[in-house]
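Fig. S4 source data, part A: sequence.
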Amino acid sequence: MTPDAGMPALAEIQVSVVVVDGEDGPRPQATLYFATGVLTRADVEHLAQHWCDALTGLARHVTQPGAGGLTPSELPLVTVTQQDIEGWERRYGRLADVWPLTHEQSSMLRHTMRPDQAYDPYHVQMAFQVTGQVDAARLRAAGQTVLDRHANLRVAVTRCATGEPVQVVIDGVELPWHESDLSGLSEEDRARALQELRLKDQAAHFDPATPPLVRMTLVRLGQDRSELLLTASHLVFDGWSVPLLLQDLLRLYGSAADPSVLPKVRPYKDFLVWLAEQDREASERVWADELDGHGPTLLAQPSEGDPVDVDTVEVPVSTETADALSRRAAQLSVTLNTVVQGAWASVLADMTGRDDVVFGATVSGRPPAVTGVDTMVGSFINTVPVRVRRSPDSTWDELLTELHDRQGRLLEHHQFARTDCHQADTQVVFQSFPMGRAEIREANTAAGIAITGVSTVNGTRYPLVVGVTADPHLSVTLAYQPHLFDRDTVAGLAERLAGTFARLGGR
């Protein structure tokens, strides 16, 4: 609207800007109105020219590499300052986002060692056996595209000025890639060299503040046989994510790193947004009520030493017993995980002389309310306390049904549970992932190479962990820290657990 020339001016200069659609797209158009008793036309034309020059320079600047950046208002999940952001930009380059840590990630960070220290309980190495002639350049490109595709694989875990830890998501991170050719060695020398390479890789721990917290090493063992080491920190992804990443890697290898062959990524940030909307205080009250009155349930003897390694003992479970346990679970409408937890609670009760015991249990932490959560790559897991009260009059069926019901009532509060190793020094980890062998076979076909096996090495912050898989049959391992348990003691626990399984299965 053009001001009336006869009306008093509202200001020395009035600027009116509209956007006009033209043949080459929308363009801004500005008109400057001025008080003739204060300014001359030449004055205003001079000012308008300076303004146009500034706008032109700004438009030119934003097209340059490295231009722009984040501001605190663009990072609603964290409380940071512009100084924080600019400091991270100087260190890491262009930032894509900044996220908070989950409760479990914060716990991991307290236990994650610096690269020059001996033991990191969240350092994991997966050795995938690969058959077929592997094109190293093609596999490296596929790995880089996986890194580019999932923002949470490109984070640095650092702290803002307040001391709070955050995940800084960085653009343009290069995948650490190594190659080694052992194919010319004798079988004995090759086996020795491969083990030395694995151990060296295991000893090279990640610095959480130096991205990425993942790397790959391709080892050639023969013309049609290789091993791919995928080494990472559990800060960036959990066990559920591994088959998802593997499928991405194989399909990208088959497509020469063309990401269009994969579905659109469900971003990990969606989960963090959901998490920020939950009532943390209400969940903490629920857990306080659940654990009210319990005392520590500890098996390990106090020790001044630090963990340096993890050893394992297999729990003997026959196929017949495994099948009987699955049937027992089905009859009671509980999960096999509940049966394993009930059996371990019974062992703890016998060993400690207590009928009220607590241990930690790893949960997937993937809320169904988040769309596509089962296809997301990231760190969702949490360790929740499991409390089991055993009465002399209760039956196995009653104990397992009550345990199942209690865990169901706590499900929506899993992300805010707190488990302290000083209150419970054992943990049950039941691994069950939705993507199985069929999906990997399909990805193998698309790639033209095949993943035929995997061995995994990782640590634990718990003195003793009951590790369980059920694919295709129940398999149970006790992983322990040797400075806290001797092997004979753990072997005795394995026998007790095996006997409990047999009794549960009616054998």
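Fig. S4 source data, part B ends here. The two ends are 91 Å apart (CA to CA).
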